[in-house]
Each structure stands twice: as C-alpha cells, then as structure tokens.
Design goal:
CATH class: Mainly Alpha
Strand content: under 5%
Shape: elongated
CATH superfamily: Transmembrane di-heme cytochromes, Chain C
Largest sheet: 2 strands, antiparallel
Distance between the termini: 102 Å
C-alpha cells in the first residue's frame, strides 16, 4: 500500500513537471522586433494602395516609402546590436544547415528553433534586401508625368527612368516572396502546430522542445528608440538637403 502511494505521488509530481514544461513560455521576440514586423506590413500595404490609387496620392506613397526605409535600416542595425534572437549572428546559418533543415522538414523530423529557423532566416534576409532596394530606388524614381522622388536631383533623368523600372518590376518579386512567406507561416501554424503569428504578437514561444533556448531578459526599448530617432533624422536631413529638381521630360 505504501509503495503504491509513493508511486502515485511520483507520477503526480512527474505529471505536474510535464505540465509546467508544456505551459511555460520563453520570451523570444523583443518589442522593437515585433513592432518593426507589423509596421513593415502596414507600410508595405500602404505603399501599394497609395500607388494603386494614382498620381494624386503620390505624397502619401512617398511617406509610406519613408517609413519602409526607416524600418529596414533600423532592422539592419537591430540585427547587430539588438536582443539575442534578433541578431543576425544568432539566426543566419550555413547553407548546408539550411539544406539539411529543408530535408528534415519534408520528413517531418525538423527540429524547432527558438528564433528563426534556417529557411525562415533566408526569407528574412531576402525580404530585407529586396524591400530595401525597392524603397531606395523609389527615392530616385519619377512617374513620367509630374511627380519625382526626393532624391531625383542627384541623378540624370535617364538613370531615374532605369531606377523607376527596377522599382516597378521588383514589386512583383516582393509580392511573390510575401506569398511564400505567408504560406510558410500558415504551414507552421496548421501543420507543424507552431503558432508563429502568435509568437510575433506576444513575443513568447512554448518552452517545450526548446530546452536549451535562451530567453531574453529585456527588449532594449530605449536603444531601439535612439536608433529610430537617429535614422529618421538622418533620412530627413538627406531629403531636406537634396538639390531641388523638376521633372525633365526632354521636350
């Protein structure tokens, strides 16, 4: 009888420990990273909508582009000085590891990562690169009617037309990357049962399966705010001091 009581108590303790592991959460994503993510989504949509609405909304399109530039430059610096899981050095992995992860994923044996998994890391780098090129080329672009980007005066009209073409055509590549990204997130949510959307809202992930993961202790909000102010001020200075120019249509 005593042995049965002891065994029952041990089972109860083990079950409670399992529940603690299952229910416990690790703080993975800091607040600046989460805010960056959702503001980038909003700014990208705003840029698309204002462009679709026509030339009369060009000023709003520019402001959306400014936000995208600021957010992307911030994320690059945050990838260096930000919190543990936001730093590039802690989630960008060797291509071989990415290939192995993809193979394991097809077999349902891919391990969980506290931050970005190897394929997710590649998508992050891809989106950062193409969105930055898209935003920067927009600063030099023109609509061949009467609207010009704020930095149009630094280059020739011919070069502006080339950058405008890149700006327009790159959108469809970005859209394709976004569709793949959203599809991958939904795959993880509904197939692998890893709610990446919730994690990017709350900043937390279940501790189960992440025994060696490092939780962050602080979001370094003040550092993020300082970076945003500096980047915004620098962009404003570049725009304000740019040479005045008018659209050169060649006739």
């Amino acid at each position: 009888m005593t042995e049965q009581l002891v065994e029952s108590a041990e089972n109860t303790i083990a079950l409670e420990d399992d529940n603690r592991v299952t229910n416990s959460q690790l703080k993975i994503w800091d607040l600046p990273t989460r805010v960056f993510h959702w503001l980038l989504v909003i700014s990208f949509v705003a840029a698309y909508v204002t462009n679709w609405l026509g030339v009369s909304y060009f000023a709003y399109h520019l402001w959306a582009g400014y936000f995208v530039v600021i957010l992307l430059v911030f994320r690059i610096f945050w990838g260096i000085v930000g919190t543990h899981h936001a730093q590039f050095i802690n989630f960008v992995r060797h291509p071989v590891e990415s290939v192995k992860y993809a193979l394991h994923l097809t077999k349902g044996k891919a391990k969980s990562y506290p931050g970005h998994n190897p394929l997710g890391a590649l998508m992050v780098l891809t989106l950062l690169l193409v969105l930055l090129v898209q935003a920067v080329t927009g600063l030099f672009a023109n609509d061949e009617i009467f609207n010009i980007g704020p930095l149009y005066g630094y280059i020739s009209h011919e070069l502006s037309l080339k950058l405008t073409a890149v700006h327009k055509e790159l959108f469809y590549w970005i859209l394709g990357a976004v569709v793949i990204h959203v599809g991958a997130v939904l795959f993880y949510v509904f197939v692998k049962r890893e709610n990446l959307i919730k994690a990017m809202i709350t900043g937390k992930k279940p501790a189960q399966g992440l025994a060696e993961a490092k939780a962050i202790e602080s979001s370094r909000i003040w550092l993020a705010l300082v970076l945003i102010v500096i980047i915004s001020a620098l962009l404003a200075w570049i725009i304000v001091t740019a040479p005045e120019a008018s659209l050169d249509l060649g006739y």
